[in-house]
Specification:
single chain
Length: 239
């Protein structure tokens, strides 16, 4: 359901769940696991263990000695099953692989899988859905909606990369005259987001903050030049 705090349809349970569900790094999903162990995961998956489906799907993707590792339809099958069994990372990994063409699937399917994982509580998936929205991948392009989602994730989930991408979106939209208010106000908003990004341990945010501090000392229009700096490497267009 829509909550009014953002334009993407994040579920009402998102704020609570996103504080608890994070991308897990586990030795169990490592490509170095023995084949015997991998197929134990497959058996467990068939019995309804979503986490095992995720591990086996990752194994198929990463294994180097097993001939079936190149069968991308099988990777998709097990990630889809993990997703259907409630594993947010299964939906998230599937979305990422679909959008990059590693497994079969349309941009629309990738966006839907990202939103499914988001509504299971994955902050990373909500971030991915926001980037899809900003770029128009699998859904209608809407830079303002993407920006609002980044701001929501930054403020509610303390997601440093979302703070950073929010600032980058602001930089392009400000340069295009799509933001209300004066240049100084837009600059202050970008600075606040970059500070949060660094505080939340996102290294590119810390780099950008140092650049802004340098521009304050050396530029006659630090806000304009900072916007140029932030948006210069963009692969999206919100102007």
């Amino acid at each position: 359901s829509r909550t009014g705090r953002h334009c993407l349809p994040f579920s009402d349970s998102f704020l609570f769940m996103s504080q608890q569900v994070h991308m897990e790094s586990s030795d169990q999903s490592s490509p170095s696991i023995p084949i015997k162990k991998a197929f134990e995961y497959r058996k467990a998956c068939e019995l309804g263990d979503g986490k095992a489906c995720l591990y086996f799907g990752n194994y198929l993707q990463c294994a180097r000695t097993d001939t079936i590792c190149k069968n991308n339809k099988r990777v998709r099958k097990f990630l889809q099953r993990a997703c259907s069994l409630g594993e947010a990372d299964g939906c998230l990994y599937l979305a990422g692989m679909q959008i990059t063409g590693q497994v079969p699937g349309s941009e629309k399917e990738a966006f839907q899988n990202a939103m499914t994982a988001c509504n299971m509580g994955s902050t990373d998936a909500c971030f991915l859905a926001a980037t899809f929205t900003r770029a128009g991948l699998g859904t209608k392009k809407d830079c303002s909606c993407g920006l609002n989602a980044f701001l929501h994730l930054c403020n509610e989930s303390h997601h440093g990369k979302s703070c950073y991408e929010g600032a980058r979106s602001l930089s392009q939209m400000s340069r295009a005259g799509r933001m209300d208010g004066k240049e100084e106000e837009a600059t202050q908003r970008m600075q606040d987001l970059i500070i949060k990004s660094c505080e939340y341990k996102y290294e590119p945010g810390c780099v950008a903050l140092k650049e802004f501090q340098r521009l304050i000392q050396t530029s006659s229009r630090p806000g304009h030049d900072f916007a140029v700096f932030l948006s210069g490497s963009e692969k999206f267009n919100c102007e």
